[in-house]
Structures are given as structure tokens and as C-alpha cells.
């Protein structure tokens, strides 16, 4: 099953127009971007809660909206499950009644009560549930109506870390057990990385990039995408030389060898990117590819690791590179501000973007 949006536009005011050309297939597609970029409005356009000014929305062979031919399928006939950011449960109904409301024929409600382990909660009212329990009930209610497409708007935003992980597990299991395309909105990078089969990056009302999640996380094609996806190291550079097997790019202090990228030509000014976790500390005397010597400018502690800010030899910047290093290795190798170390940028982990 597949959802497609072609030339869909909705103008909200003089300064903001949402423009969408995208496709959602089976699995989990993440619509990712900063707050206010139009993610929730995109879901509302698909569900029929907002009307586009132009364009076409189609699910498989069924046209849900087409401005040119004046086709508009009503909300209740689109067979779309929509789970809002804050669970909109009926306060006067029990868990069982909420899930059964609008459920498909047969034992559809019972199926999802069991699926999401809600049997012991079936007689409770929403006011008697925790935030995670309400989210599970809301998702079960959406699925009990037998939707052909599931839309989730920031479903984890009100949950603590433990309940967030549990609900993500529910969602991944749902993906494996059904063939319903799932479009999930988030601005949380960890959620996107944990769940996405495909990633659509939205910024200022426009799709910046859309690709399979692993490729887009590891090698974004545009600087704005890299910034939104949390790449710590983005450095302006110039393409110095290109062959069939290697491309040489130059930053202020040194040259790096990267994989050839046919988008760029010698002399072009572009951006070199690498994640902090892929900047590797060299602890032997053996020379490495893309090796640089640097001075430790500052150490910023964090929960899982430390961010080491490095000033590359020959640079005029306070720092050029950020490297992730855990406490054990910081202690073992005496990593301290002012110290000098060697690091390497693995060629396969470096990417170029426009």
C-alpha cells in the first residue's frame, strides 16, 4: 500500500506556504523537522482535516483529494487512523468503550485490547490511566477502526523515558505484524533514528530531502539536512582534485581524501561533514588516512560520552572538530584541555553536501 502527495500546497499566511511532494510506503516513515515547519499540518491535510489549495493526494488507486478535478473524499471515508499528540479519549467512556467506538466488524476491539495488554484496564476511565496507558488506548482505538493508513503526531512527547521505550517497542511490533503504512511526526532525533525505515526532512514548509533512513543519517546530501539531523562537524571546504577513486577536498588547515562524489567539480566550494562519533582517536604510531594533529580546546561532559572540541594544527579557529570519547578512554589517554592528540577521519564516514 502506498500514499502519494503530488504538488500539494496550502498557504496559511503571507509568510508560510506548505508544499509537499512525497510518498509513504509500508513500514514506518518519519516526517522530521523543527517545530513550526508544517509537520502536523501535513498530517491534517492527509486526513482531510485541512483542505489543500492545490495538488493531489492518492492512496493506492483511490484519489482522496484532487484540486483540478474537484475531488474531496470526506474524513470518515478515508480509512485513516489519526493519533493526536495528546490522546483524545472520551472521558465518560471506559477503555473498552473507547477502543470499541467506531471499531470494525467482528472482534477487532478485543484483538487490540489483547495486543496492547489492556485487558486489566478495560473497565477504567481515562482519568485513571497513566500517560503511557492513555497512549496505548489511543493507538488501539485508531487500529480497531481497521485503517488503511496510520498517522501519528508526536506520540511520545508526553511520555517519560521508560514509557517512551515501551511504546516504541509496541510500534515496531505493530510494523512487523501489519502491512499498514505508518507516517509518524517527530522533531526528536533519537526517535527518528530508532524507528524510521524512511525519513522525510521538512524545513520551513518544504521537503529538504527524502530517502531511506540509514543513508540519510549517514550521508545527507544538503547542509541544512545535516544540521537538522544533528551532525556535529560541518566544515566549509573546496574541491581540490577528483579522480575515479578519490576526491581531495581542502579546509583551512589541511586536505582530506573522501569518496568521489559526481555532484561536485574541482574548485567548487561545498561542505565536509562527519559525525563526532566517527572522529577516531589515534593511539599508535602507525600513520592513518586523513590524520590530523590537534589541540584539545575544551571538554564538554554528557551522559554517554564526552564531546572533545579540537583545534586542528594550522587553523585560526578556536576549534574545528568535535570528537565523542567516553570517560574510560579520556582517563586512559589523559585527555585534558591543552593536550595534543592525533585523530583520523575515516574516508567512508566523511560526506560532502551542498
Characterization of the model:
A hairpin with a 2-residue loop joins strand 10 (198-203) and strand 11. The two termini are 34 Å apart. Strands 7-8-9-3-10-11 form a six-stranded mixed β-sheet, with helices on both faces. A five-stranded antiparallel β-sheet has the order 2-1-4-5-6, covered by helices on one side. The protein is α+β, with helices and mostly antiparallel strands. Helix 3 (108-115) packs antiparallel against helix 4 (131-144). The mean pLDDT is 91. It has helices at 39-47, 95-100, 108-115, 131-144, 161-177, 189-195, 213-218, 223-228, 327-332, and strands at residues 3-13, 16-24, 27-32, 54-59, 62-66, 71-72, 80-83, 149-153, 181-186, 198-203, 206-212, 233-242, 247-250, 255-258, 269-274, 279-281, 291-301, 306-312, 321-325, 340-345, 351-353.
Topology:
Blueprint lengths: L2 E11 L2 E9 L2 E6 L6 H9 L6 E6 L2 E5 L4 E2 L7 E4 L11 H6 L7 H8 L15 H14 L4 E5 L7 H17 L3 E6 L2 H7 L2 E6 L2 E7 H6 L4 H6 L4 E10 L4 E4 L4 E4 L10 E6 L4 E3 L9 E11 L4 E7 L8 E5 L1 H6 L7 E6 L5 E3 L1
Parallel strand pairs: 3-9, 3-10, 7-8, 8-9
Antiparallel strand pairs: 1-2, 1-4, 4-5, 5-6, 10-11, 12-13, 12-15, 13-14, 15-21, 16-20, 17-18, 17-20, 18-19
Helix pairs in contact: 3-4
The CATH C-level class name of the largest domain: Alpha Beta
Strand content: 35-45%
In sequence order, what are the helices and strands, one letter per element?
EEEHEEEEHHHEHEHEEHHEEEEEEEEHEE
Number of strands: 21
In total, the number of domains comes to 2
User: Uncertain segments of ≥5 residues (pLDDT<50)?
Assistant: none
What is the fold-level CATH name, i.e. the topology of the largest domain?
Answer: Rossmann fold
Amino acid at each position: 500500500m502506498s500514499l502519494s502527495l503530488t504538488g500539494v500546497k496550502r498557504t496559511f499566511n503571507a509568510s508560510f506556504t506548505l508544499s509537499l511532494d512525497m510518498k509513504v510506503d509500508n513500514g514506518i516513515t518519519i516526517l522530521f523537522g523543527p517545530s513550526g515547519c508544517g509537520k502536523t499540518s501535513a498530517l491534517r491535510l492527509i486526513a482531510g482535516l485541512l483542505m489543500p489549495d492545490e495538488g493531489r493526494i492518492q492512496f493506492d488507486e483511490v484519489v482522496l483529494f484532487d484540486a483540478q478535478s474537484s475531488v474531496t473524499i470526506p474524513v470518515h471515508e478515508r480509512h485513516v487512523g489519526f493519533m493526536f499528540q495528546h490522546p483524545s479519549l472520551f472521558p465518560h467512556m471506559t477503555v473498552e468503550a473507547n477502543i470499541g467506538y467506531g471499531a470494525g466488524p467482528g472482534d477487532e476491539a478485543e484483538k487490540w485490547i489483547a495486543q496492547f495488554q489492556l485487558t486489566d484496564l478495560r473497565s477504567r476511565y481515562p482519568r485513571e490511566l497513566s500517560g503511557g496507558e492513555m497512549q496505548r488506548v489511543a493507538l488501539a482505538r485508531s487500529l480497531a477502526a481497521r485503517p488503511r493508513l496510520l498517522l501519528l503526531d508526536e506520540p511520545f512527547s508526553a511520555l517519560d523515558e521508560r514509557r517512551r521505550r515501551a511504546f516504541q517497542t509496541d510500534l515496531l511490533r505493530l510494523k512487523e505484524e501489519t502491512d499498514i503504512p505508518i507516517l509518524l511526526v517527530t522533531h526528536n532525533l533519537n526517535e527518528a533514528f530508532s524507528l524510521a525505515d524512511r525519513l522525510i526532512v521538512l524545513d520551513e514548509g518544504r521537503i529538504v530531502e527524502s530517502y531511506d533512513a540509514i543513508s540519510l543519517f549517514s550521508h545527507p546530501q544538503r547542509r541544512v539536512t545535516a544540521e537538522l539531523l544533528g551532525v556535529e562537524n560541518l566544515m566549509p571546504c573546496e574541491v581540490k582534485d577528483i579522480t575515479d577513486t578519490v576526491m581531495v577536498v581542502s579546509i583551512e588547515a589541511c586536505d582530506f581524501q573522501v569518496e568521489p562524489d559526481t555532484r561536485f567539480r574541482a574548485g567548487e566550494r561545498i561542505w565536509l561533514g562527519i559525525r563526532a562519533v566517527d572522529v577516531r582517536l589515534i593511539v599508535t604510531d602507525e600513520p592513518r588516512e586523513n590524520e590530523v594533529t590537534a589541540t584539545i580546546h575544551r571538554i564538554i561532559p554528557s551522559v554517554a560520552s564526552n564531546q572533545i572540541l579540537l583545534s586542528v594544527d594550522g587553523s585560526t579557529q578556536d576549534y574545528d572538530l568535535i570528537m565523542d570519547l567516553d570517560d574510560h578512554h579520556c582517563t586512559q589517554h589523559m585527555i585534558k584541555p591543552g593536550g595534543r592528540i592525533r585523530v583520523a577521519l575515516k574516508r567512508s564516514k566523511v560526506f560532502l553536501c551542498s
